């Protein structure tokens, strides 16, 4: 007994897991047991594995609904927080920066984010407005996170990763649930949802959600005082639902719709066009509203073939100091999956997308711009399995085409090998593109103003201009991975990558003759005009590794260890590495994401109806420089922790207490890349009650 | 003292304490749901009578078919060679309609839930025992479906389907089953 305790202490304190699983890996052969004995075996509801991804030749992770529940997440970025290889950092109480494999920022542009297969990134800046992207959290069935290029099947923008949120189908029985959350930073979240079975073939669910968040506390910044209560509280309202209709035994139709209205307070440091001509603190409210409708039709065309057709339309209206925009987008896509021969699986398809936008003047965009774009895509992928050799090979290509005749070809080759049932080795080589955003091709944004200095009699304004010649960014990615089920209760997943980037965006100054500087008049005030233009001039590489270990230490304790490392090295091919001009973007791309991320998640079932989740997480330092002003941004490396304790009081009622960022009174996680006002996130706690019947 | 140190100390102690309490409540075995389901399927087969003339010889195989992928499917592979009465189990994953007619028992993975009805329309059902693992399996026309109840694994039997088939379940099996009438009355 003493030895076992000692061993257990070693296991837990040193996390020397491989030494320890053996004694717990006792397995009985159920098939030798009688029915009566089998009936007595107690089963703990183990979270379902998404088998589709466990053998995939890609660095994939599935966040299950159980994980989302046990994490206590109240928003989608929170649910992504400790996912292997994902850097989810809170910018302020209502904004997040979510990145995979580097390049993180509030306006990250190298990820494809989708909900139920429908892209939610905006072509305006190729990123996601996370603050306007919410859902009824308990109705998310799973989140698939793919690190690395996923362009062939998923689509453009999947340069460094894909996040696909899948909402659940309606239940096969009538149900309802009310969830109320309240705490110091979360003023309230109220969520009501219901499922209704109309008939054997038709079922539906609906939800409504309202959320109110408290503001944060300012961090110190250039000319900004720390410790001030900030104007960044927020109110959200959203409702939606879906209908699943099995039309006949081989076809079914899903229709889903959501709409939201958010009022989000925020602070910026906007350029002033009057004295003192400095970027100054501005309080502002973001009014966001939007709606989406989506219909998906499936038809089974054979034992191993299937057809899918999807249509969607969405719009958003966004009014704030940065961006006042109305955008409408419509999409039609089809996909056909079939097996032309034994051991072959082919998926091919295509789609057409139309998107129209109108941007009206705001505090940094002085001219209105309109645009409408048609684009199309075609893709095909074949997976060949060699059962004798336990090998499978995948080759595919996707072509994205645009109105102006441009097209982007994105191929990939993948292989996976299972030398035994416990091990999968995989490798992939792929090319992905990020198509230019609207901002990069057509929009003019004023970055900053500065007062007259020295001999210059006029103030200066710096503006970035989109440029119609700006082209797609490209990555060639080389990946290797290893999955190993070392024991029934211990599994490892390791992935390593080397990404070669070319044609990444920089903003470079347009040169002018210093003796005759260009003048721009804003209002009545003349400015010396310094214009920067988007240019495909950055190239370089990143490399890294991601490690995940899951250890079911006992029936009632599960540990998950995550570590990821990345190193990014870039340079401007026109200016080299050491030029001050154009170094901002390189510095931010390289160092705004931490080199190291790590976390430990212990999930314990203290009793039949009591759960404890302890999450410790580490994030390395972020520090980058803005040139030519040499403004430095620095965020220290940090350790923090979340705790969740829940009690299932009855069959219907679950109560939970969640503590967030418990190790510090307040801390700073991120600074937005443009017009930032640094914020500190406070320690917080909330209570949640879920009543379901 | 630095609050960081205090709290990380508390966490460390909590981790160790939890580790120890777990050990005291050391589990007899860590029940793997998939292998439990596989054992159920084996036992259900033992208590099922297929119609006369299904087998011509006593040592002919019982063909256990699987459709779809998943951890239960992997577990079922371990049943290969085990005997049901005198019939050794042979595993098969049919991909063509004709192959299904050779199956005595068919397990359909829950991932294929969208295909339940399609399959039941396609397959000769009279002497095929279908087993599934999804809330919509029975209402789609499946015969036996797993269900968790009070932390135990149980199974439902679709009485409509059973009556219209040529299969017979032993009374022992029926005693353990949750008997349900198929809602919606397909077939």
What does this structure look like?
The complex is a heterodimer of chains A (693) and B (187). Chain A contains eight helices and 37 strands. Chain A has 693 residues and is mainly beta. Chain A has one domain: Maltoporin, Chain A, CATH 2.40.170.20. The longest helix of chain A is centred in the first third of the chain and has 13 residues, at 2-14. With 187 residues, chain B is an alpha/beta fold. Chain B has a single domain, classed as Rossmann fold, CATH 3.40.50. Chain B has helices at residues 3-24, 33-46, 71-76, 97-100, 116-122, 159-164, 171-176; strands at residues 48-49, 62-67, 83-84, 87-92, 105-108, 129-132, 144-149, 152-158, 168-169, 178-180. In chain B, the strands form two sheets. Chain B has an eight-stranded mixed β-sheet. A two-stranded antiparallel ribbon of chain B has the order 1-9. The termini of chain B are far apart. The longest helix of chain B is centred in the first third of the chain and has 22 residues, at 3-24. The interface between A and B is large, with 67 and 64 residues. Chain B: Pfam families: DUF4154. Chain B: InterPro entries: YfiR/HmsC-like (IPR025293). Chain B: This is YfiR family protein.
Low-confidence stretches of chain B: 20-31
With strands numbered from the N-terminus, the spatial order across the biggest sheet of chain B is 3-4-2-5-6-7-8-10
**Percentage of residues in DSSP E strands of chain A:** over 45%
**Second rung of CATH, namely the architecture of chain A:** Beta Barrel
Helix content, binned percent of chain B: 25-40%
CATH fold annotation of chain B: Rossmann fold
Shape designation of chain A: globular
**Average of the residue pLDDT scores of chain A:** 88
Helix vs. strand class of chain A: mainly beta
CATH class descriptor of chain A: Mainly Beta
Structural class of chain B: alpha/beta
- Which protein chains are joined by the largest interface, and how many residues does each one contribute? A-B, 67 and 64 residues
CATH superfamily of chain A, called what? Answer: TonB-dependent receptor, beta-barrel domain
Which percent band covers the strand fraction of chain B?
Answer: 15-25%
Summed up, the helix count of chain B is: 7
What percent of residues of chain A adopt helix (DSSP H or I)?
under 10%
Spatial separation of the terminal alpha carbons of chain B = 74 Å
Tell me the major beta sheet of chain B: 8 strands, mixed
User: What value does the Rg of chain A take, in angstroms?
Assistant: 26 Å
Family (chain A): Belongs to the TonB-dependent receptor family.
Subcellular location (chain A): Cell outer membrane
Domain TonB-dependent receptor plug (chain A): 53-162
Membrane topology (chain A): Multi-pass membrane protein
